[in-house]
Amino acid sequence: MQSLGIYIHVPFCKSKCGYCDFCSTLDRESVQKDRYVNAILKHIEESSELFTKYMVDTVYFGGGTPTILGKKFLILILKKLQKHFNIAKTAEITLEANPESSDLQLLKRLKKAGFNRISIGVQSSDDEELKMLGRIHTFEEAKKAVDNARSAGFINLSLDLMYGLPGQTSETFLASVNQIIKLTPEHISCYALKLEPKTPLYNVKPTLPSDDEQADMYEAMVNTLAQSGYEQYEISNFARKGMRSKHNQKYWDLSEYLGFGPSSHSFCGGRRFSYTKDIKAYIDGILNDGVVIDEFEEVGTANRLGEYLMLRLRTADGIDENQFVRKFGIDFTPFANRLSKHIENGYASYDGNSYRLTSKGFFVSNSIILDLLTAAEETVRVKNIFNSK
Ligand code: SF4
Predict the structure, then answer these.
(1) How far is the CA of 11 from the centre of ligand 1 (A)?
(2) Are 129 and 98 in contact (CB under 8 A)?
(3) In DSSP terms, which residues pair with 106 in a beta bridge?
(4) Which residues contact 127 (CB under 8 A, 6 or more apart)?
(5) Angle at 296 between CA 293 and CA 301, to 5 degrees
(6) For the segment 39-73, what is each residue's pLDDT rounded down to a tens digit?
(7) CB atoms < 10 A from the CB of 306, how many?
(8) Residue 25: beta bridge partners?
(9) Alpha-carbon separation of residue 251 from 5, 165, 275, 307, 308 (angstroms)
């Protein structure tokens, strides 16, 4: 059976963070929540007929803030998935949560229902930074949420952290990293703050740490986490041995996954598609048998190859040359030539089998990836011309 990951997007939050441009709305209209759940249940049932040959080995409830939905609705959705899809007994079932909606009774009930991994948005250990980001919890409350998750029985815990915040220095950021380490999570995700247009924080135009300062923060974090036993397995993700996120790994391996909910993405059968980001339009569309697809593309060789290079270079495992040739039937030499320049500059390494970015290379990965994508386009074009003769 082919394996499949399932993503459920829950677009509700208690309050909107100042930097957020994710698809989420405030948790004020309980009717909309009911309608959203009905739409998701209907969508799951209707889609499942096409996936009878698949075994689902990861399920991820993301958002938004899934815990805002409450136990009744979350369990209803999970049970619907279990009824209509083949869910492996060992499936990783992740729930994203925020400190303000992670009370012990709720987490206990969800753990009992089958969720076995939890990812909590902590972001910083500095209450002033949390306030500036528009987060509605303190670090004490985040610690309480972690305690609740452990008391509820979650032995696979991931915490989110942010860097590159206005006014942040390497010192204050490392203080947050060390506080997070003290909470002993199995997994840590750490992303740089991006000022997304139209968000309240963007409009304030705060001064962010310079690129050099952010590079220092990043390097200090990677080293500190490594010293504490966290293996970096992707640009922004770190895990204790054996505790990598199986679901996220699917995105980086070009494995198949299926999304439900507004703004969710899917990649199945060589096709990539996403649903509308308009929450109401998604709900109305599903409940009234309307169209909710926003983007759709057949993923051709050039795109697949480009994506593969891009995603693999984000991971610590890098690009396995032989695997690449087996997968695409294309000579790796043009890419090796480009990569050798980056190896000389200390941004990449080669062990005779795989090419990987160094931590210095991870920080400037976008320009290296762009360089390889140019090679990918040229290579596929040459191959197509050659094959058409
Ligand atoms: S909790 Fe997450 S999804 Fe919700 S507003 Fe904040 S950043 Fe956005």
Answers:
(1) 9
(2) no
(3) none
(4) 138, 139
(5) 160
(6) 999 999 999 999 999 999 999 999 999 999 999 99
(7) 20
(8) 12
(9) 9, 27, 17, 10, 10
The token pair at 146 is 């972690």
On whether the CB atoms of residues 141 and 100 are closer than 8 A, the answer is yes
d(CA 297, CA 310): 18
The one-letter code for the residue type at 247 is H
Q: Is the peptide bond before 64 cis (omega within 30 degrees of 0)?
A: yes
Q: Which protein residues touch ligand 1 with a CB less than 6 Å away?
A: 13, 16-17, 20, 22, 24, 63-65, 98, 121
Query: Ligand 1 centroid to 34 CA: how many Å?
Result: 20
What's the mean pLDDT in 336-363?
93
Q: Whose CA is nearest to atom 8 of ligand 1?
A: 20
Q: Which of 163, 222, 154, 141 is nearest to 184 (CA)?
A: 154
Q: Where are the domains of the chain?
A: 2-252, 321-388
CA dihedral over 255, 86, 120, 286, signed as positive or negative? positive
Instruction: Please choose, from the candidates 151, 154, 155, 171, the residue with its C-alpha nearest in 3D space to the C-alpha of residue 163.
Output: 171
Q: Ligand 1: distance of its center to the CA of 333 in Å? A: 43
Confidence of residue 378 (pLDDT cuts 50, 70, 90): confident
Rounded Cα–Cα distance for residues 61 and 242 (Å): 21
Nearest CA to ligand 1 atom 5: 16
CATH top-level class for 2-252? alpha beta
The token duo for 6 is 């399932």
Q: How many residues comprise the chain?
A: 389
E-strand stretches of 305-364: 319-320, 348-350, 354-357
Q: Which has the closest alpha carbon to 29: 290, 283, 285?
A: 283
